[in-house]
Design a protein that fits this description.
555 residues; C8orf32 fold; 4-stranded antiparallel beta sheet; 14 helices; 17% strand; elongated
Length: 555
């Protein structure tokens, strides 16, 4: 019985194995027979047998037909019935902000149909317009502090009829070295006096300040503050060497003609290591006299400038002051306070330094950047550099004060001066004078200018520091600068809304290269930055005004 059962089980097992073998053989046969595969698909799926099959595209040949006969496995589609395309308005093109890769650049984004982009005009109704301004430390988009080519000293001399018209006295120091015990004792007795903390100096008007490092700038502020307060003796607020102090004092003196009582010499006591311990200033006016001197000085300045304020542009103001000083001032070697603006404006007798300091101060009062430039013209000499409408010029009033008065040394380039004037010391780092627009506009006494130049038309916004900018645009610049300062270093964004008239003025200034960058440079200097940029994107609002989004970066 048991044997029979075992035989039955064994037979079932063998039968099952044979069935499995046959099924496997059938599957293999169907796989290798396309006809059999198609027949099986018909039995299983009928007419919908291709539904859900994804054609595989050969990546090496995407155009190779798939099983459905179309390239890349595309599915056949019925052609739609032709219909009339709906009328659609083309979107208005916009001018996109360009990459900020340089100063004052504007370019539209590349497009295959440039003719469809509207010409950017200040009153365009559609699209954005973009203004980019970029500046770096010690420079701005209107000019830089480099580029002056120093003439050979051997080739520089004054013309024979002007050889005696000089008289500039360079800054000099009276130094005393202290023993260690003396230095230690003195440091316990001295105070800082006025530190000048919080003082700010506009780089457009006080360029020498920005030629100094941070330590030098701190001592500069301290010297300026103590000179204003008539504090003669104090210890420096920063560690500074006796040699570095001379550069700082020269910077203060050259930047500030309003300190007419400050003498060109000063004292310094220093330790054996060269560290300055005590600074002593020298004044030509006593504390008791100061009120009267200042009042007299201010009164005379107002008398001279009374008519200048109403003149139409900066060039006319410059020319008026030039001519007025030549009427009021007489060259006199050895005149009292001869190195000061006071000697020229009040006393009416001075040397080259007095002419230059007076001209510098009056230009500052009119809002026109003007610098005190010192150097050599056969002997020590001083003259001016003036900034007009984005260009720098040399001006030498002393040499123009002849009989009759001339414009021979008025608004000239460095090349014009290369045989008669050479800068020295810090003045070599002032901007190169290469302006031509306001050069040789006035005739010489014989009625002919050697190289006449047509006078350019003054722009509505002649440039940084110009008082010819409209009050509204000046207010816009000022507000932008304040907002940048309020945000601080780094990135910031703010929005301004301008009416069409003010936007037209701003855009015209930008197109003419006369947009003021002063608000940006002033903010950068106030915040202690080294580079700055602003991108202004303008769009027209629904009320007809222009919305300006300012994106600022100061590092």
């Amino acid at each position: 019985m048991e044997v029979a059962v075992l035989k039955l089980v064994k037979g079932i097992f063998y039968g099952f194995c044979i069935l499995v073998i046959l099924l496997c053989a059938g599957i293999v046969g169907i796989a290798f027979s396309p006809t059999a595969s198609e027949r099986l698909a018909e039995i299983l799926y009928g007419e919908n047998r291709n539904q859900g099959i994804v054609d595989v595209v050969d990546p090496a040949d995407p155009e190779k037909p798939g099983e459905n006969g179309l390239p890349g496995g595309q599915e056949p589609q019925e052609s739609p019935e032709p219909t009339e395309a709906p009328s659609q308005e083309q979107p208005e093109p916009t001018i996109a902000p360009p990459q900020m890769d340089g100063p004052l650049t504007w370019e539209p984004e590349p497009t295959p149909m440039p003719s469809q982009i509207p010409v950017p005009t200040p009153d365009m109704d559609t699209g954005n317009m973009v203004i980019n301004i970029y500046a770096v430390k010690n420079g701005n988009t209107s000019g830089g502090a480099a580029g002056y080519v120093i003439p050979s000293g051997d080739s520089v001399s004054a013309p024979k009829d002007l050889a005696d018209k000089a008289g500039y006295t360079p800054v000099t120091e009276n130094t005393t070295e202290l023993k260690k015990e003396e230095a230690d004792k003195l440091q316990t007795e001295l105070t800082l006096g006025e530190t000048g903390t919080g003082l700010y100096f506009d780089s457009l008007f006080y360029p020498y300040y920005y030629l100094l490092d941070e330590t030098g700038q701190a001592v500069y502020r301290q010297i300026y503050a103590n000179a204003n307060a008539l504090n003669k003796t104090f210890m420096p607020c920063q560690d500074i060497t006796v040699n570095a102090l001379k550069t700082v004092f020269e910077a203060v003196y050259n930047d500030h003609p309003e300190l007419f009582w400050l003498e060109t010499s000063y004292g310094c006591k220093y330790s054996r290591s060269g560290k300055c311990i005590e600074i002593t200033l020298q004044f030509s006016v006593t504390e008791e006299e100061m009120a009267d001197f200042r009042n007299t000085f201010d009164t005379q300045v107002n008398r001279i400038l009374y008519q200048a304020w109403s003149l139409p542009d900066d060039y006319e103001k410059e020319k008026y002051v030039h001519n007025r000083l030549l009427e009021l001032v007489e060259y006199q070697s050895g005149a009292p306070m001869s190195q000061s603006a006071y000697s020229a404006l009040v006393n009416g007798k001075t040397v080259c330094a007095g002419y230059a300091r007076a001209f510098q101060y009056l230009m500052h009062q009119l809002g026109i950047p003007c610098y005190y430039c010192t150097g050599y013209s056969g002997e020590n000499h001083a003259w001016n550099i003036i900034y007009l409408y984005g260009e720098y010029y040399n001006v030498d009033l002393t040499w123009d004060d002849t009989e009759p008065a001339t414009y021979r040394y008025f608004n000239k380039t460095d090349q014009d001066y290369e045989t008669t004037h050479v800068r020295r010391s810090l003045a070599q780092k002032l901007p190169a004078c290469e302006g031509t627009s306001y050069r040789n506009l006035e005739p010489e006494p014989d009625g002919a200018s050697p190289t006449p130049t047509p006078r350019p038309q003054a722009s509505p916004t002649p440039g940084p520091g110009s008082s010819s900018v409209s009050p509204e645009l000046e207010a816009y610049y000022k507000d932008c600068g304040q907002q940048i300062i309020d945000y601080g270093l780094g990135n910031s964004t703010f929005v301004q809304e301008l009416d069409s008239s003010l936007w037209n003025e701003l855009w015209t200034a930008y197109n003419n290269g006369n947009i003021s960058d002063s608000f940006l440079i002033r903010a950068m200097n106030r915040l202690g930055g080294s580079s700055c940029s602003v991108q202004i994107v303008c769009r027209k609002g629904t009320n007809g005004n222009y919305i300006l989004t300012h994106t600022v970066n100061i590092q």
